[in-house]
Amino acid sequence: MKVVKKIPLILLVVLVAMQFYRPEQNFAQGNHTKVFLKQTNPPEDVKTILQESCYDCHSDNTVYPWYNNVAPISYWIADHVQDGKKHLNFSDWENYSPKKAAHKLEETAEMVSEGEMPLKEYTWTHETARLTAEQIEALVEWAEQSKLLYELGPQPE
Ligand code: HEC
After folding, report:
1. pLDDT digits (tens, 9 = 90+) for 51-102
2. Residue 153's pLDDT is what?
3. How far is the CA of 118 from the centre of ligand 1 (A)?
4. Of 81, 90, 94, 122, which sits most exposed with the smallest number of CB within 10 A?
């Protein structure tokens, strides 16, 4: 079959053509998590964990790996970031109601203690994002405590 023989060539052409389309990058100027950090006041170790293990998908700023220059990996990464931010965006904290903030912190404690976050496909390639048992404990403790702040009110400034 002639067509079958042409498939590799067609795929190559498609792959090359894909390189011309670059998904928009998730890039924030300045201190994009200021409100979140001020309100939830994480200790230094938790701040570092959030930065290294969560912000790439849950904030307005992603530190991209080099292979983000290669399509279709770039499409796949953009999709993860978009989906992650839709569910939880620490850079959008000022627009979260106390109820929503409390709920997201509860989910954070749950997902992290169950080992569901950070996503496996992320920690495969981001070694520093992997969490130790102590890091999980620290993150969960902070999330549960700051959740209470929102539930008990008044709002922390
Ligand atoms: C590689 C991207 C990625 C990383 C890194 C990541 N997440 Fe997620 N996260 C997602 C995606 C995508 C979803 C939505 C789909 C799902 O639940 O699997 C999600 C969902 C969540 C949710 C559920 C929010 C809701 O209410 O629906 C929480 C909470 C969460 N992540 C917390 C975290 C925390 C905390 C970290 C860091 C320890 C983290 N994530 C790291 C991609 C990521």
Report:
1. 999 999 999 999 999 999 999 999 999 999 999 999 999 999 999 999 999 9
2. 75
3. 6
4. 94
Q: Which of 56, 57, 122, 147 to mutate to test the pocket of ligand 1 (most atoms within 8 A of CB)?
A: 57
Neighbouring CB atoms inside 10 A of 61's CB total 17
Q: How confident is the model at residue 1 (pLDDT cuts 50, 70, 90)?
A: low
- Going by CA atoms, what residue is nearest to atom 12 of ligand 1? 84
Mean pLDDT of all residues belonging to the chain: 95
Atom 37 of ligand 1: nearest residue by CA position: 54
Q: What global pTM score does this model have?
A: 0.93
Report CA(74)–ligand 1 centroid distance (Å).
Answer: 19
DSSP for the chain, written as a single string: -HHHHHHHHHHHHHHHHHTT--PPP----S-TTHHHHHHH---HHHHHHHHHHTHHHHSS-----GGGGSTTHHHHHHHHHHHHHHH--GGGGGGS-HHHHHHHHHHHHHHHHTT-SS-HHHHTT-GGGPPPHHHHHHHHHHHHHHHHHHHH-SPP-
Q: Compute, in angstroms, the gap from residue 117 CA to the centroid of ligand 1.
A: 6
